[in-house]
Amino acid sequence: MKKLLLSLTLLCASLAYGQRDPKMDAFIDDLMSKMTLDEKLGQLNLASGGVPGVVGAAVGQDEAIRKGYLSATGGMDPAATQKAQEIAVKESRLGIPLLIGLDVIHGYKTIFPIPLAISCSWNPELIRKSARIAAEEASAFGINWFYSPMVDIARDARWGRIAEGSGEDPWWGSEIAKAMVKGYQGDDLSAPNTVMACVKHYALYGASEAGRDYNTVDMSRVAMYNYYLPPYKAAAEAGAGSFMSSFNVVDGIPATGNRWLLTDVLRDQWKFDGFVVSDAGSVGEMTAHGMGDLQQVAALALKAGLDMDMGANAFIWTLKKSLDEGKVTRQEIDQACRRILEAKYKLGLFDNPYQYTDPERQKKALSPEYLQTARELAGESIVLLKNDRQILPLQKTGKIAVIGPMGNTRGELFGTWVMLREEAPARSIFEAVKEVVGDRAEVVYAQGSNLTEEPMLLAQTGKNTTPTETLIEQALETAKDADVIVATVGEPSGWSGEARSRSDIGLPECQKALLKALHDTGKPVVVAIMSGRPLTLSWENERFDAILEAWHGGTMAGYALADVLFGDRVPSGKLTATFPQSVGQLPLYYNSLNTGRPYRADFWATTKYLDITNDPVYPFGYGLSYTTFDYSDIQLDRAVASGGSGTINATVKVTNTGTRTGDEIVQLYIGDPVASISRPVRELKNFRRITLKPGETQGVTFRITTADLKFYNSELEHVWEPGEFNVCIGPNSRDVKTAKINWTK
Ligand code: BGC
Ligand code: BGC
């Protein structure tokens, strides 16, 4: 009888998990039958490089690994990583290998632009390739697990971590999430050159109130399902091996201990079958959230569906006691342990625990081929915001003055999360411009201003040695007989990323003073901005003819900008996050709902401010080229479709009306003006990249199906509702052509 029950339970479990690998199950059954409770709890413990104080006396990391108290560790130092793995395999009782994790966010040694930047390339294949290269490099140095991709939707540029994600759009964010998972994990997770993805931060972390990091999130389920959850779901469906819980609360319960989130949605609805790790210390932080003492919060997290505790030592310290007291069950511990062992199995670690350290493959790091891909992606990420009087591209002649505090630094162009970056192959903007023009032009440089003179920001940046006034005088002297000025301004790497929120997202006053002085020379000025977030640029947009957003472009940032400045690359990037006029407008995003009183300038009581319009400076999807494109009206093959299998083809003709060959990112949006819940004015559904020669015209056809009409209704069902829709096609989310269609039952 007992046996029958057991096999029934096993059957149900295997059905619930979908396709199982019987060989893996048998291997792990056998392994777990030999494990003590302490060893099982050890598998639930990640201590990143530190020394966990384990049950009673604190022990060093080596001893913790030997005793089986550690499942995973950080991969900062390849030699230490290799040693740790050897101890785990050779000196622990059962020889269970370690997961070696690292925050490889936009490259390991070859650093690509920050994620926000690469999302502006609208090139999923190149994005996948960058993820592939990161995995190729890191997996040769012992690393088998990336804490990436970060897929948090962000609508508030105050939040410093907007740099780490793909901007504000759920559809595009989902496409990138899939490309990243595919790039990291490849087709075979057990291959030595693939690593396991960890999708973070689950969930809604990007909606931290007022852009303050770690802050409260409070959101309706309808908003979660329609706008914030899709990229996590897409990553899960793409086969991501692990997820990381976020720091914030969801429905008042910290994500790390939120059973609805970690089990009902992630596992039951989305069928995710990997494991979930906490964010660094987030199990312990549940105490500060008001969820009880360490023992209580650890039990809560385990029961919610969290499998691994990163950095809090809460599982390893308290779960044994909770088991004795009946506060958690043996099955719950076994379940988490099994999921983690499965990940190790899938990575091939039990077959060859050392396959992720390979001196031969290490030699390929920073190879010319990788650096070339980084240069290409950095170039494609640059967004041309303004180019009046065709100041750009520049000629490689005469005298060019590179002026500004971002112009002669290599390090500050890398962006956030670049622990293992190497500056040798990088060039500053000044260095790269000099190299690219060779002896055809004279290139000079002056710093021009400090990065900031704000006391609190200075604490991030380091003390100033020269007042900006003096720097401006020197710069004007340097630029005196220059033909053109490239003003290199913005944020250094350390002003965005984790715990790097800003309340004012404009250029600091001293940098604006420099820009003003350069403007007053009457010379042509190109403003090149490096930043980790959208900035408020009204003042700059009003005064300057040429503005480029170059973000933090990684190792090849300097070269990539030089390529664009001189037209060796024609810019094609388009923004994935709205650039507001003012912080007071935040959150500002293109896929907003209509209100009952949509903005009207001529009526006093509509959705607006007294002192400013609702317009962004640059909308979502926006970006210019060195050529110009004209869009025809939309042509439909039919205006009415019916049923779930109906389709409508919508076509625009795009013409290159300028004088250069260029790429255009043609965007499809759909609006649903009548539905059972209020729907956004329009939502991105697809895009197409086309290359057009001067004078060339190309038809671009989007095939619309009911999949493009679906949304989550009040019951959280994914449905489309018959009725009228607006099909919008254009070069950005604002300047679109619109056609009405009808979709009947
Ligand atoms: C961050 C995560 C990161 C983790 C491990 C946390 O503070 O929120 O994004 O993966 O640290 O370094
Ligand atoms: C206001 C209410 C007011 C009503 C009647 C509305 O526009 O929102 O507060 O009571 O007018 O005057």
TrEMBL record:
Protein name as it appears in the record: beta-glucosidase
Name of the encoding gene: bglX
Organism: Alistipes hominis
Keyword GTP-binding: no
One term of GO molecular function: beta-glucosidase activity
Catalytic activity: Hydrolysis of terminal, non-reducing beta-D-glucosyl residues with release of beta-D-glucose
Enzyme class: hydrolase
Keywords recorded for this protein, A-Z: Glycosidase, Hydrolase, Signal
Domain Fibronectin type III-like: residue ranges: 664-733
Gene3D superfamilies: Glycoside hydrolase family 3 C-terminal domain, Glycoside hydrolase, family 3, N-terminal domain, Immunoglobulins
Domain of life of the organism encoding this protein: Bacteria
InterPro entries, sorted: Cellulose_Degrad_GH3, Fn3-like, GH, Glyco_hydro_3_C, Glyco_hydro_3_C_sf, Glyco_hydro_3_N, Glyco_hydro_3_N_sf, Ig-like_fold
UniProt family annotation: Belongs to the glycosyl hydrolase 3 family.
Signal peptide extent: 1-18
SUPFAM superfamilies noted in UniProt: (Trans)glycosidases, Beta-D-glucan exohydrolase, C-terminal domain
SMART domains: Fn3_like
